[in-house]
Amino acid sequence: MQIRYALPTRKSVAAALGFDKDPLRALLVAGASYATVWQNGTNLPIITNNFNNQFVSAFLGERPLAEALKEAQKTANSEIESK
Hints:
There is one protein chain. The protein folds into two domains: 7-36, no CATH class; 44-81, no CATH class. It contains four helices and no strands. It is mainly alpha-helical. Helix 3 runs antiparallel to helix 4 (65-81). The longest helix has 17 residues, at 65-81. Helix content is 54%, strand content 0%. The mean pLDDT is 87.
């Protein structure tokens, strides 16, 4: 039997499930405040958020897709450079 440990992506869900009181998951919860995204790089959340926001804008017809993608790239690069 293989035991796997994972945390929900939302803190409220982890709290509602009592993960901070679970002896197997409490250390994961305690380390969440200083955790870093390693698997896909530390810039992935910035890139994902910017492209998701602009994609929704294009999907709703507020701007052409090409324009939205250029804006997402520009904003993501700016945020990454200012870190």
